[in-house]
Amino acid sequence: MPSRLNLPPRPPSWSSPLAETHSDAMDSTRTFVKDVKRLVVKVGTAVVTRSDGRLALGRLGSLCEQIKELNSQGYEVILVSSGAVSLGRQRLRYRKLVNSSFADLQKPQVELDGKVCAAVGQNSLMALYDTLFSQLDVTSAQLLVTDNDFRDKDFRKQLNETVKSLLSLKVIPIFNENDAVSTRKAPYEDSYGIFWDNDSLAALLALELKADLLVLLSDVDGLYSGPPSDPQSKLIHTYIKEKHQGGITFGDKSRVGRGGMTAKVNAAVNAANAGIPVIITSGYAAENILKVLQGQRIGTLFHKEAHLWLPLKEVGARDMAVAARESARRLQALSSGERRKILLDIADALEANEKLIKNENDADVAEAEEAGYERPLIARLALKPGKISSLACSIRLLANMEDPIGKVLKRTEIADGLILEKTSSPLGVLLIIFESRPDALVQIASLAIRSGNGLLLKGGKEANRSNAILHKVITDAISDNVGGKLIGLVTSRDDIPDLLKLDDVIDLVIPRGSNKLVSQIKESTKIPVLGHSDGICHVYADKSANMEMARQLVLDAKVDYPAACNAMETLLVHEDLVQTGGLDQFIADLQTKGVTIYTGPRAGRLLNIPRATSLHHEYNSMACTVEIVNDVYEAIDHIHKYGSAHTDCIIAEDKEVVEVFQHQVDSAAVFHNASTRFCDGARFGLGAEVGISTSRIHARGPVGVEGLLTTRWILKGSGQVVDGDKGVVYTHKDLPLQS
């Protein structure tokens, strides 16, 4: 029996180690925050004040509203606030200006004493917090500390008791360093941490008060690989000391405070090493603290076990492709039975890990719903009950099919004793870019293994968790003599341009998506592209159609699975069916099932139904276009003009009309009296499919194992030479496939 995955321990917070194993760009899971009870929030001077030194009332108001919301939900929130010095400096400058003569203003201006500024500003800052929290029916308390305080064990004990009492009364403790009287000349440091500024104070308090989480609010979204203003800089979602330390270029320090990002990173590293998860995120964005506690991927995470989640060495695009090619060659060297066993092991592993897969998929679906994605996308994203079992069955069917590698397709006697064989051969390395359907990953991976190809996969970001767990389950089931690098999971869109340049390593690109995506890929690469684009499928109901059959076929083609690319998007109706009531029956049937109808120009003139915005439109939902045509020839012209050469169907009993339709419609699949939903690799008996190709070169229609193979010529001789074509007598005789 297959064993369930032995995953690294899931951290008590923030993100899934499984997802993070593949990329720090993976979205976080909701498991991070479920155990958070007490958190410390530090707000920096750049967030508290505006560029002119005045208070940023809007940001402070949003901060207080978030804390109020957390307080009402039972969280214990401790606030560490900077801004007193900056606010005091602004007020003293204004007072000095008011009291100065013109002559005084001409003299060199002496910089104000920072400790005086702190004394004046702290009073104003706390008055504002008290006013804002009072409006929200929340009580706050001020606690000023210095480094010397922490040297006293009795102070630490009393600090804990006071804060515990305040929190039990739902009072918000607001901490700040008492800069007005502080005598510190150098960083205070002990086994608990470093106290040098309010960032390090927040870290120290998080440890001292046993917080579950520390949130450092900044004026940028998090830690970047370089200055945030540099367009080449990228947001780092998970900080890995071994990976990022020394590789980050810090910009200028804070425009107003003592710290800046360097101070925040130092504080975050110290706190994380001591076991307190830390998130640096923007205090400018609304509700960021709430989003963190909802499990959303916000800012940069620091965690003691982060190094376990990400590989220390980042795998580049070329390295990934080369590794897939090398693994593919090892796969091809196996016996047919050994390759078959790999597929059977994968099928077993999928079923053994069904619960884990479902949990990750549920998280993807929930976040997609929260993000407001359209229903068709969410429908494609969800792994419905029984789907994993269905996928496992398809893989077993594929495993039990005849081995496609090395199959002799043709044998020819070139000359006496010189035999030429045309055999099937893997293409090499495939790059598949697909949409939100995580089940596509399983189908594509199993087809690649059966056909002996290496594989690179790039799925939609909305399926990050699902793709990550499925990829891990599959690659863990691949035997060590081949290696899991046979299948690489590309997790960042930024890697795609680099991959498309690797025409010496990658042999075929299959983009599954819109025409726009396919066109962009074709324009960006020298690698052959097998296009799988829009599925604008038509059903034409001829006047000779059996109406009882036609009504069933139309309904099935539309409502069986509206989000599929082989679902009917346009119904073409012969004009005679308008008079006989057939058109009305179709519309009534569809509307009864909840399908929204739109019309073409001709149908729109007869029916009180909204017009379609475009006749070339893929709804992927419970909607379709209805149009009236004169005859089969007009139906064919309509399909060629507005279709996508995917799958088109005629419902008719007139054999001549059927023959015209099936011979003249230039689509990958042309059906007669059968639902368009049959256009599927599994239903065609291919085991699975990497997509439905609308290209005209290499493979067309559902692309199964055969579509992922090319040919190889094997010549078997016994010492023959050409010698100017005098060395042999050519016979060129066809031979039986079996020698």
Automatic annotation (TrEMBL):
Pathway: Amino-acid biosynthesis; L-proline biosynthesis; L-glutamate 5-semialdehyde from L-glutamate: step 1/2; Amino-acid biosynthesis; L-proline biosynthesis; L-glutamate 5-semialdehyde from L-glutamate: step 2/2. SUPFAM superfamilies: ALDH-like (SSF53720), Carbamate kinase-like (SSF53633). It comes from the Eukaryota. Residues 37-282 form the Aspartate/glutamate/uridylate kinase domain. Pfam families: AA_kinase (PF00696), Aldedh (PF00171). Signal peptide: none annotated. GO terms for molecular function: ATP binding; glutamate 5-kinase activity; glutamate-5-semialdehyde dehydrogenase activity. The keyword Iron does not apply. Its EC number is 2.7.2.11, 1.2.1.41. Keywords: Amino-acid biosynthesis, ATP-binding, Kinase, Multifunctional enzyme, NADP, Nucleotide-binding, Oxidoreductase, Proline biosynthesis, Transferase. Residues 319-579 form the Aldehyde dehydrogenase domain. Gene3D superfamilies: Acetylglutamate kinase-like (3.40.1160.10), Aldehyde Dehydrogenase, Chain A, domain 1 (3.40.605.10), Aldehyde Dehydrogenase, Chain A, domain 2 (3.40.309.10). Residues 1-21 are annotated as: Disordered. One of its GO terms (biological process) is amino acid biosynthetic process. GO terms for cellular component: cytoplasm. It catalyses: L-glutamate 5-semialdehyde + phosphate + NADP(+) = L-glutamyl 5-phosphate + NADPH + H(+); L-glutamate + ATP = L-glutamyl 5-phosphate + ADP. P5CS plays a key role in proline biosynthesis, leading to osmoregulation in plants. NCBIfam families: P5CS, PRK00197.1, proA, proB. In the C-terminal section; belongs to the gamma-glutamyl phosphate reductase family. In the N-terminal section; belongs to the glutamate 5-kinase family. This is Delta-1-pyrroline-5-carboxylate synthase. It comes from Trapa natans.
